[in-house]
């Protein structure tokens, strides 16, 4: 089983720094199913190629194969799979190139952060879906994809093609991104894994898919195949992909440079800060003493609420355990005074599934959350928040798409994970329909500097339950 990675960047031998494998050495790594060897067939200034070769022990492979793997019933007797780049190769990539996948290179950090001209070849790859599926998965990621079906027997062309392809990828990408693409998509193309699919596979998928999976046009197929069509794991993964927090919008705000030769210019307050302050102010005006932040992300709003003693009970919920861990660190949960800690609860949950822990609060906040939810799943979120949790007040903020033209360098939506961005009329129509359906009234507030013709960058809806 063979994978080669080549570059023509000058000097091409810098590939060794990125992979953390010296071009002059042959290195072996023991795997549960055999041995992985890294060597360099060519290592020159103009072109360098690193090869990952797996020598699979068929007996060890049988012992580690899960019952959900392809061809399980025949795998102990007739097995050509050790010679094809399936999940075995993905596991080897994850182990052998772990540091490179993380985008770390202490010796040359600028090299790890930049893109390189890359060429990746896999001579034999199981592909349930044929060459077309390989192109559908890799081309949206920036790869020029050559996928050629391998015939069952070249001497008998009338027998047709096998389910294996020869794959060649060319593109200019970060090496870390390229390795993560392979780590996720090799078992997806194969539609099976050689090991038991446990719940921690969701975390692996989300980590390796960071920055590209959420907006991939085939994300549903990728997620389902990667997780072996295990419905519970799928639901968790889909929710985590759909309901991530938005902390990147402030990057759109123009930076104000300090003129060292003149008076200091007052710095603009970032939009995410103004939005958070407006939410806290509105909650105070509503007289809420208990608040749940639905989709709390890294806990910025939760921290602002904790700073106000009037909020006696605060909860932060997010579908991402990673985000909750970051929130706990930023809030210094371990060192928080007992009195303040007693006011706070952080827990994991998906906003599109009924959860009794969401109920019992004066107010719920959905701050920059709904635009991350696929439109067909909005009805589920509405039912969970307004129907089952049914707090006295609900505050919803979301981008105003009409304002986007004011961001000079913005193309498309404000965040790559946004599923939609509404105009003021579209947001009003949605909010008024939800209010009627669940017996609320709704008022609207602008957040941020208003444009006379386009409104404010953020729009806020404040829902109050009718008695």
Commentary on this structure:
It catalyses: small RNA 3'-end nucleotide + S-adenosyl-L-methionine = small RNA 3'-end 2'-O-methylnucleotide + S-adenosyl-L-homocysteine + H(+). It holds the Pfam family Hen1_L. Helix 3 runs antiparallel to helix 7. The protein has 2 domains: 2-196, c-terminal autoproteolytic domain of nucleoporin nup98; 269-465, Rossmann fold (3-Layer(aba) Sandwich), CATH 3.40.50. Mean pLDDT is 86; it is low at 67-78 and 243-266. The protein is an alpha/beta fold. It has helices spanning 15-19, 58-64, 87-96, 98-101, 109-113, 130-138, 175-190, 200-208, 219-226, 231-242, 271-286, 300-306, 321-330, 338-341, 378-389, 424-438, and strands at residues 2-7, 27-31, 34-43, 48-56, 116-126, 144-151, 161-173, 290-294, 313-318, 344-348, 363-367, 393-399, 440-447, 458-465. The radius of gyration is 26 Å and the shape is elongated. A hairpin with a 4-residue loop joins strand 3 and strand 4. The strands form 2 sheets. It has a 7-stranded antiparallel β-sheet. It has a 7-stranded mixed β-sheet with strand order 10-9-8-11-12-14-13, sandwiched between helices.
TL;DR of this structure?
With about 475 residues, the protein is α/β, with parallel strands linked by helices.
Strand order of the largest sheet: 2-3-4-1-5-7-6
Number of strands: 14
SSE order: EHEEEHHHHEHEEHHHHHEHEHHEEHEHEE
Total domain units = 2
CATH superfamily of the largest domain: Vaccinia Virus protein VP39
CATH topology of the largest domain: Rossmann fold
Structural class: alpha/beta
CATH architecture of the largest domain: 3-Layer(aba) Sandwich
**How many individual helices?**
16
Biggest sheet record? 7 strands, antiparallel
Stretches with pLDDT under 50, minimum 5 residues: 67-78, 243-266
The helix content is 25-40%
Sum up the overall morphology in one term: elongated
How large is the share of residues in beta strands? 15-25%
CATH class value of the largest domain: Alpha Beta
Mean pLDDT: 86
CA-CA gap between termini: 68 Å
């Amino acid at each position: 089983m063979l994978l080669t990675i080549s570059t023509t960047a000058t000097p091409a031998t810098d590939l060794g720094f990125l992979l953390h494998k010296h071009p002059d050495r042959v290195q072996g790594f023991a795997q549960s199913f055999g041995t992985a060897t890294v060597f360099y067939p060519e290592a020159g200034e103009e072109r360098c190629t690193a090869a990952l070769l797996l020598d699979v022990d068929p007996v060890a492979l049988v012992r580690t194969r899960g019952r959900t793997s392809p061809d399980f019933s025949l795998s102990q007797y007739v097995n050509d799979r050790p010679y094809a780049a399936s999940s075995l190769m993905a596991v080897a990539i994850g182990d052998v190139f772990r540091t490179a996948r993380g985008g770390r290179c202490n010796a040359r950090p600028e090299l790890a952060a930049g893109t390189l001209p890359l060429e990746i070849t896999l001579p034999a790859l199981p592909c349930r879906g044929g060459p077309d599926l390989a192109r559908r998965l890799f081309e949206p990621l920036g790869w020029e994809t050559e996928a050629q079906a391998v015939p069952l027997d070249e001497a008998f062309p009338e027998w047709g093609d096998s389910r294996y392809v020869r794959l060649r990828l060319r593109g200019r990408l970060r090496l870390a991104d390229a390795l993560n693409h392979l780590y996720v998509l090799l078992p997806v193309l194969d539609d099976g894994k050689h090991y038991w699919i446990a719940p921690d596979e969701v975390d692996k998928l989300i980590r390796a898919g960071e920055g590209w999976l959420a907006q991939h046009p085939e994300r549903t197929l990728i997620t389902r195949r990667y997780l072996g069509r295990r419905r519970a794991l799928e639901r968790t993964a889909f929710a985590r992909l759909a309901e991530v927090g938005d902390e990147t919008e402030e990057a759109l705000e123009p930076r104000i440079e300090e003129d060292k030769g003149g008076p200091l210019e007052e710095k603009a307050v970032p939009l995410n800060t103004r939005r958070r302050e407006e939410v806290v102010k509105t909650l105070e005006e509503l007289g809420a003493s208990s608040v749940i932040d639905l989709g709390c992300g890294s806990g910025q709003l939760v921290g602002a609420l904790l700073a106000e003693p009037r909020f006696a009970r605060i909860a932060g919920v997010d579908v991402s355990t990673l985000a909750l861990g970051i929130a706990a660190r930023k809030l210094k949960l371990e060192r928080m005074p007992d009195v303040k800690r007693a006011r706070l609860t952080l827990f994991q949950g998906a906003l599109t599934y009924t959860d009794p822990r969401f109920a019992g609060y004066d107010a719920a906040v959905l701050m920059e959350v709904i635009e991350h939810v696929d439109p067909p799943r909005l009805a589920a979120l509405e039912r969970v928040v307004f129907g089952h949790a049914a707090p006295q007040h609900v505050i919803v903020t979301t981008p105003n798409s009409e304002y986007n033209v004011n961001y000079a360098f913005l193309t498309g939506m404000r965040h790559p994970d946004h599923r939609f961005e509404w105009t003021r009329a579209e947001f009003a129509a949605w909010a008024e329909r939800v209010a009627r359906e669940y017996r609320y009234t709704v008022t609207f507030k602008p957040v941020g500097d208003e444009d006379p013709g386009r409104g404010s960058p953020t729009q806020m809806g404040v829902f109050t339950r009718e008695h």
